[in-house]
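Progress narrative, Year 2. Work on Vacuolar protein sorting-associated protein 26C from Nothobranchius furzeri advanced from sequence curation to structure prediction during this period.
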Amino acid sequence: LSVLCDMHIELKNNYFYHLQETVGGVIVLTCKEAMQHHGISLSMEGIVNLQLSSKSVGVFEAFYNSVKPIQLISSNIEVAKAGKIPGGKTEIPFEFPLHMKGNKVLYETYHGVFVNIQYTLRCDLKRSLLAKDLSRSCEFIVHSQPCKAKIVAAPVNFSITPDTLQNIRERSSLPKFRIRGHLDATSCVISQPLTGELVVEKSDVPIKSIELQLVRVETCGCAEGYARDATEIQNIQIAEGDVCHGLSIPIYMVFPRLFTCPTLETTNFKVEFEINIVIVLHDDHLITENFPLKLCRL
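Result:
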């Protein structure tokens, strides 16, 4: 019978790290009684997983080569040589430098739909043939290097009327409305909120809701072609019902951690972000104004 033993990894720094830092922590083993083992190893891996949306599969043959996982970092260390672990709780400290080999780049951790950038630590404890090996994994978060260029916050003014709308079949049938406002910046620091304001100056039909929609635009592909997919990250309602005309409505959105990252453009994939201001009229007609965003880390 195998000795009952539990193993997990605990990391310092709240699991957040930057390039050139050391990923440190302890491997915690809790055993009912002393246990023989054949060595404990720890491996670190950083991978970009690309996936095609169902509409893109089969369109480009060349995609099947370009969507293979991209390895960013891979290394292995021996934590303990073969020996015996005493009963009770044992903590084995470790340190792993977060260094890049060659000219590779460490991208920021990002959990998307078609692009996923993930960093994991995996601990393996080898045992005799009759006992099952123990293995545990945990994710740690990598923050990219701060952008070198200085960010200048340039407000972006907007005015939404029937004349400014695109993709309209019968403009004459639209109700009369005028909505104006501004975003304080579209080049945004990822750790700071997106802010601005909006004013409904006039609307012939009642307004049902005003919403902010954050969208990720993920592009996967190669020279032969690209698959570009836009999906919603979050939707925040900033006004409900037929708001007072002439009243300033604040725009405020925090960028969610892990589901956003600094805007990224590489040979095989791109991750970009957009914000939509969506006005829902009482008859459920949607008026949408789109703004591309550039996110970066300071």
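The mean pLDDT is 89. The CA atoms of residues 50 and 115 lie 5 Å apart.
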